[in-house]
Amino acid sequence: MRPTVWLEPGMLIIYGAALDAAAHKHHAIQLIWPSNDSSYQLNGNLATGALLIDADVEHQLSMEEGWILLIEPLSAWGKTLQAQLAGRTTCEIALKSSVMPSISSYDSQPFSLLSPLLSSLISPLLSSQLSPQFERLDQGSYPDRWTSQPTDKRIKALISQLDKCFDGNCIKPSSWRAAEVAEQLALSESRFLHLFREQMGIAWRPYLLWRRMFCAINALRRQESATQAAYIAGFADSAHLSRTFKSQFGMTIRHALNLFQLKSSSN
User: Fold this and answer.
1) Which pTM value belongs to this model?
2) What is the mean pLDDT of the chain?
3) Rounded to the nearest 10 degrees, how much is the dihedral formed by the CA atoms of 204, 191, 73, 28?
4) For the residues of 158-188, what is the DSSP string, one character each?
5) Distance between CA atoms of residues 144 and 132, nearest Å
6) H/E element, 249
7) How many CA atoms lie within 13 A of 204 on its CB side?
8) pLDDT at 205
9) What pLDDT is stored for residue 182 in this prediction?
């Protein structure tokens, strides 16, 4: 079985084996879908079947094999998942189909494989309220599904700038100090920080850290060393990146490299 990673603005999807994450929490809502013959342990409790975990909820997860999806809470899909949670920290998902499609030799967008999971999350009521794009789960070309959609044009432009990292053109975090960003947007620092939290549902600093993690993952996927990934994402060194990575994802960079089946000259 070949572990596979997909990364786009607002979304991280992993299909992997032998996932063992220490206690951690992150900005994203998390979906777990173990493979047909697999089980997982969440906070020490053995379980099977699909599960939803709310954002900023500390959890420890071990899974033999299956899917992990991380989705921004204020994206269209994130709001759908929040409706499913209905204020709970976790909830089980009753799948319309319990059969997981085979991922063998699959290397394109994973959304058709995820249809049994994603279609189970859309009730008739929610489906009528959402865009018809949600009916086309085999298509992954609708980024507004996964990314938060700020209404303020200044915050929207800022997020678009951050998204350049996904093309490999990562802008160093030194360019993203709150005072400097506020000045670029013709706002006071306090007004910018208030507006960003209002629009994105998270403070600027932890959101920027979350996006820096995505920069690091992208670098690792491009076969960069852990040292180079740390530099690209604006960390002092690979040890600093690994500590932050573990707090966000519950695993070290070395574990991530093994999961992604990548190699690094410095871990």
Assistant:
1) 0.83
2) 80
3) 10
4) HHHHHGGGGGT-PPPGGGG-HHHHHHHTT--
5) 13
6) helix 238-249
7) 20
8) 92
9) 93
CA angle 8, 116, 76 (to 5 degrees): 45
Tell me the pLDDT band of 134, cut-offs 50, 70 and 90: very low
Phi-psi region of 128 (alpha: psi -120 to 50; beta: other; left: phi over 0): alpha
CA distance 136 to 112: 9
Q: Amino acid identity of 223?
A: Q
φ, ψ for residue 209, nearest 5 deg = -60, -40
Helix (H, G, I), strand (E, B) or coil at 204: helix
Segment 137-158 shows an average pLDDT of 71
The length of the chain is: 267
Q: What is the pLDDT of residue 194?
A: 97
Q: How far apart are CA 35 and CA 3, in angstroms?
A: 13
